[in-house]
Amino acid sequence: xxxxxPVPGVRAALEDLLLxxxxxxxxxxxxxxxxxxxxxxxxxDVAMSSIAQDELGHARALYELLAEVRGDGRDADAIAxxxxxxxxxxxxxxxxGRGDWAMTMARRLLYDTAxxxxxxxxxxxxxxxxxxxxxIRREERYHVMHxxxxxxxLARAGGEAxxxxxxxxxxxxxxxxxxxxTPVGEAALLEAGILSRPMAMAxxxxxAEMAAILGPLDITFTLDAPIDPGAARSGHSDxxxxxxGEFTSVRRSDPGAxx
Length: 259
Hints:
With about 260 residues, the protein is mainly alpha-helical.
């Protein structure tokens, strides 16, 4: 077991892991919150609002751990909101705009299953993260259940619903594996027990899970690893820059305010 603030060689790798996990949850949480009030059925207004709130809560908890590891006086809110768009480390899968309901469900399916594989790869080497991930996994399993039910519903509906869902999966396929791109300093994280397996192994498990979900629905497509792992979490899109403008607008309106 290592201390609350790990040794420098591990600390840098842990900071990058925490930031990428937190940014993923933060960005998808804000993106999904856009459905509040306009979801296709009333129950989904409630469901998507709840899921978005869960994701933002997970992001905050991860940012708080990151703030403790860094120890530079910046709190979770400063890390979350006081950065320029290019400084965010979320996966390119989440750079895609909200789109229609089929696009949102396709993105959630790809993300939630990949995130589950990543969470299953967190070891016991750093107890604050291991304990948090144990809690997050209990909540995230319901997200997976929700989106797999929608995947089944859309795919089996046939007609335009199926066509839109399949087209969305195909449009997102190239960026989907970026959630499980090899993290910076992976060897150090594995040696410290913070990761229990390489992300390449997590990605293999994820692909098998996707095949198990989509195979019975007669949907197949390729989920290759990113050609350039270094670009998996950089070079963000105009869609994300618009979203960044939305979720930072209040804080930027009065930077010195205490909320």
